[in-house]
Amino acid sequence: MRPRLALVLLAAAVVVTGLGARAFLPTALGGPAGDALYATFVVVLVALARPTAHAWVPPALGFALCVLVELFQLTGVPATLAERWAPARLALGTTFAATDLLRYAVGALLGGAVCALVDRRDRSRARHPGAAPG
């Protein structure tokens, strides 16, 4: 499987898992899991946008973007947008919470690790093109 396709499928799986965690787990578990998976998703998007970047770039940039979104919540603009268009809540949140920053760090590390595995598998296949998929 091509690495970009693998990343697209990974992004879709992360979204489904994050939404499922928020919908089906108790709030005490689903909220933190959803926050971490939000950051994982952002990291995967960065990896898709910057496929040739060094391995540390997607998790670092993904985490930085999540922090910016969290700080943006201090302005009240995301909450207003969420009142007018419900999907904005999923992308921007509504209320600043410092604990989300730790969850984003965990999610960014997870995203970086998964992206590294996809990249490693792709490089391995490039070195051994005749090897059976595994």
UniProtKB/TrEMBL annotation:
Pfam families: DUF2809. InterPro entries: DUF2809 (IPR021257). Keywords: Membrane, Transmembrane, Transmembrane helix. The chain crosses the membrane at residues 36-53, 60-81, 101-118. This is DUF2809 domain-containing protein.
